[in-house]
Amino acid sequence: MTHDVHPTTIRILLADDHALVRRGVRLILDREPDLEVVAEAGDGAEAIAMARIHEADLAVLDIAMPRLTGLQAARELASVRPGVRILMLTMHDNEQYLFQALKAGASGYVLKSVADRDLVAACRAAMRDEPFLYPGAVTALIRNYLDRVRDGAEAPEQLLTPREEEVLKLVAEGHSSKEIAELLFISVKTVQRHRENLLHKLGLRDRLDLTRYAIRAGLVEP
């Protein structure tokens, strides 16, 4: 008897910069008959490259990755592979990340510490277009909503555009304008314009200032 692929197999793109974590997550997913990891990536930029090649239904992205964070990769994936569902994987029970993840289009947010318990359910929920949040995240969302209602205000819009934020992260990581241009599929001239805009907008002087800002903004790890 031949073993056919499960009729509704969910094809997964998995991105995490720690090979050991990737292996652990892959083991959790591949144990399930309806889940299959079809591609792995070590950072956000690689995840986008993989999404161009592989047909994936769902991307499971670590939030803190080099070159492009999971949040930045999520925004890019929306244009590269429209319709792909996105789950964020994180070590941090961090409200700020949670809100950014939801804003970037993620349908779920899973803590690595309980991935063996939550991840499979989160994958299936994402494919049903249902949000998946761990209990603490639900509390944070409700509290945030109630605070905004009480203050009669929405959170202020972000200072930087998504593209400026991507350029900022890559500059802070020490990439040259040429490397940034290749990674983001834009011209060197455009990269330089973004750098000038960043310095002007943030009132900063040089790359060192930009790097410090990127660390404070949680775009790169110190």
UniProtKB/TrEMBL annotation:
The modification 4-aspartylphosphate is found at D62. Pfam families: GerE (PF00196), Response_reg (PF00072). InterPro entries: CheY-like_superfamily, NreC/VraR/RcsB-like_REC, Sig_transdc_resp-reg_C-effctor, Sig_transdc_resp-reg_receiver, Tscrpt_reg_LuxR_C, WalR-like. Residues 11-127 form the Response regulatory domain. CDD domains: LuxR_C_like (cd06170), REC_NarL-like (cd17535). Gene3D superfamilies: 3.40.50.2300. SMART domains: HTH_LUXR, REC. PROSITE patterns: HTH_LUXR_1, HTH_LUXR_2, RESPONSE_REGULATORY. Residues 153-218 form the HTH luxR-type domain. Transmembrane segments: none annotated. Keywords: DNA-binding, Phosphoprotein, Transcription, Transcription regulation. PANTHER family: TRANSCRIPTIONAL REGULATORY PROTEIN NARL-RELATED, TWO-COMPONENT RESPONSE REGULATOR. This is Response regulator. It comes from Streptomyces fimbriatus.
